[in-house]
Amino acid sequence: MTLFLLRRLLYALPIVLGVSLVCFALVHIAPGDPLISVLPPDATDEVRARMMAAYGFDRPYHEQFLLWAWRALHGDLGMSIATARPVASEVIRAVGNTLILAVAATVIGFAFGLLFGVVAGYFRDSWIDKAASTLAVVGVSVPHYWLGMVLVIIFSSELGWLPATGMGPSGSSGWVPDLEHLKHLALPALTMSVIPMGIVARTTRALVAEILSQDFVGALRAKGLSEGGVFRHVVKNAAPTAIAVMGLQLGYLLGGSILIETVFSWPGTGFLLNNAIFQRDLPLLQGTILVLALFFVVLNLVVDVVQTLLDPRIQRA
Amino acid sequence: MSAVELQGLNVTFTGGTKPVRAVRGVDLGVDRGETVALLGESGSGKSVTLRALLRLNPERKSRIEGSIRVAGQDVMALRGRALEDFRGKVASMIFQEPSLALDPVYTLGAQIAETVVKHEGGSRAAGWARALELFRRVRIPEPERRLNAYPHEMSGGMRQRAMIALALACRPQVLLADEPTTALDATVQIQVLLLLRELQREFGLATIFVTHDIGVAVEVADRIAVMYAGRIVETGPVREIIRNPRHPYTIGLLRARMGHEQRRGARLEAIPGAPPDLSALPPGCAFAPRCRFAEPVCSVQDPAEEAVAPQHLVRCLRSAATLAPAG
Question: ABC transmembrane type-1 domain location, by residue (chain A) (predicted)?
Fold first, then answer.
């Protein structure tokens, strides 16, 4: 097992390297001059050259990359151009906020997705299956910003039950799990949960139906297990795949839905990315994407390990 | 009293657009300690008959009629807990493909122990102890280690031995074997057949052995029942069936099997045509369209069961003609 872990970690290295290369290259791939948002349009060539030197843009690419990677390794992702604050702290705060939202959405989405999927898979082709499948398709296809706005109209404007925007009551700093904060979390989390819910429901339905059609389920009944006993076996067989889907979904949601976070003014990564793009804040963009990509790599690693622990057929060597 | 008593068993699958009559009026009795081979090609209804004995055919998509009595219990009347107690305890089943019939994510020991705990109560440790005892009994080498193995870590023969151990875990009275050696290599096949025969005698099991291989049937069975299109067309003691087959289909099966006298390169004799569509059966004898003895009356009149020798029953209007081996 230790060997397996080490090997998986080793495999992750080239991915991390590739990811950081792409992030680094972003500055140079993006159209226009990397200094365009720092310098006034009428800056002299001399000022321009001084700024190039200050940012290190005059050195060869590989040197620039090594320097950038070295700093990133030490937690220094540069300064945000727009706010002049360290990118690292901005990103960490945003990731923390998005994590709250993403975990809440994943939990809700997963609970309902699994419920619908298992029920639909068990009662395939019945009206329950059709209802659950329809709901799943709607969940996957409905535009989420639209759903968010509809929910705001219903629950905030009309009924006045839940706040429409922000992470907490004005003046509060940091997130604490109290009623007020949970109320603020409710609508964005619900809106976001529709994405994993639809995908999980459809995956689980197919998974359960596939497992139920296998011979060993008949064999389990033949040896006298109750439906509950058979269900336990189905769950254990479905778990590795379901966990993998959940991990990937959490990864996608961590990237933050730009649209959902913008609709609800949720100060997460999506919100941050949105701002970074519009303000051409390249260091911020670079840093955010790098952190998110690393998160995704780590999450994949965790999913792989968990999956291996659950399914004996996956080779551990 | 027979250990297994089937009377007028009908199984109809109603899931599709047209009802499919997979089993049509099967009568079969198996005594304690007796092995009956249910012989037939794919789709003849032999596996469906076997599954009906444990009520394993999907309830919502099939209709079962007739009477099924196993070890004195009316299987058709069993519900819920009583049905669970019956399955695996009174009658248990060995499946064709052990790699598919065993749960891939549980160890073999856990799967056997689970069954023992379910039927006999007691601790998991007691269940594992029984599993170990059974692994020794079916001659799995290094049984302690193999109990902790997952199905995919074992060879096909070992998996089928484990499946047999699982089926015998709660000392059933009736063993239902659904082509248990079909998926195995020829040499392993013989070993498993010999093991099954040995265990069947030792436990005094009433066994129904479904197979499409007449050679296997001869090897394990006391009696053979030949099925065609959902019906038993001929039944009798093994020697009688082999030496004196009377139904044209049985004769065809025997001829299609390569005999010792077959010359190299000689054409193997096959039964022409294909089995009928069970959702649109013609009137009369279902085998008539493929039968070389058929006469016009065969496609009109449904043949009744007729005793041609003691214990030897045939459903054929032309059984007189098949007596003299033609050609």
Answer: 95-307
